[in-house]
Amino acid sequence: MGSRGQLDGLRCIVSDDTGLVKQVTFNQDRTECKIQRFCEQDKARVPQVLSFVNEQEVLLALSNGTVERLNLENGETSLISSHGESEFVGMFQTDGTLTTCEKNGKVKCVRSNKVEVEFQAAPHVNKMRVCEEKMQLLAVGGEDSELRIWDLESQDKPAFKAKNVKPDKLQLQAPRNIKDLSFLPESGGTKLATGTAYREIRIYDTAAQARPVLNEVVSEFAVNAIAVAPSRQDIVFGDVAGGVYIFDIRAGRIKGKLKGMTGSCRSVQYHPTLNYIFTCGLDRHVRVYNEETRQCVQKLYLKQRLGPMLVASDLGPGKDALKGNAEQPAEEDVWDELDKTVEKKRKSKRAKVN
């Protein structure tokens, strides 16, 4: 369980709708939290996907079709690829080769800014993820596009293609729209979880069958983002209405809710080694929750609507070591005071009515 002191130094990197990238270094004392700002506000250069190169370098897949490497120590960026045709939905780099996936379903392997491999992974893709255990395996899924797993060593056909759930009593096919997906840790690339626009969490075991082994409606709203716990027992997911829940894979049911979000959840992440969950979205806050108590232990207001997020496994630098464009999260206190004022007015009105 994450203790009070373990919150100090936790880092996340998050982008927003204006083109900014921010690194947040957390502290138990909110006034000691630090925010470093990178890049410039530019609607033509909004990061659509983030990916770690290492703990101090991040890849940015931008809306102008380019991919750049951002150095978090000095803020410098360098061009990696300029071959994007549509919205990026996934990206990773291994052994010097950048692999990207776009919404039009095209997967490209780029080296030295030259496309070495290109193939059509699916007609439409909302999300692409790589298997951390077998980096040659990637999974894709999207609207009217079932889950597919591709092996980069053989692009002739998918290594696995899922089947839809069985038709209903009227023999009508269930609609398909995968919004997010993830490989389950320590499964050898054979087990995956997906979240759908039709409020479902689906679990697949490719070694057992093509249809999902578990299909549960988990929300009143579309599931927008998911993340699998390092323990492989839980999935945290966020929906478009701001609900964030923990789903127990073994029991096949929701075991708890993470309260606080008031806008669509765009990203949820587990800390790689500690029992913390990070969330962000349209309410412009980054929140950190204790996984076991499900309590929000820290939140920061970052001014813009937030999108993709990464959580670093190492601890950030001390408060005197931070460089670059720093922001102070003082506005958070203003919002807290506003909430208190609104609540006081509500209580006053209730008292007058009574």
SSE layout and pairings?
Elements: E1 11-16, E2 21-25, E3 34-38, E4 47-54, E5 57-62, E6 67-71, E7 77-81, E8 88-94, E9 97-102, E10 106-111, E11 114-120, E12 127-130, E13 137-142, E14 145-151, E15 160-161, E16 178-183, E17 191-196, E18 200-205, E19 214-217, E20 223-228, E21 234-239, E22 244-248, E23 253-258, E24 265-270, E25 276-281, E26 285-290, E27 296-301, E28 306-311, E29 325-327, H1 331-353
Antiparallel strand pairs: 1-2, 1-28, 2-3, 3-29, 4-5, 5-6, 6-7, 8-9, 9-10, 10-11, 12-13, 13-14, 14-15, 16-17, 17-18, 18-19, 20-21, 21-22, 22-23, 24-25, 25-26, 26-27
> Which strands sit side by side, in order, in the main sheet?
28-1-2-3-29
- Helix content bin: under 10%
Distance between the termini: 45 Å
Got a strand count? 29
Number of distinct helices: 1
Secondary-structure element order, N to C: EEEEEEEEEEEEEEEEEEEEEEEEEEEEEH
Low-confidence parts: 1-5, 318-324, 329-334
Mean pLDDT: 90
Query: Oligomeric state of the chains?
Result: single chain
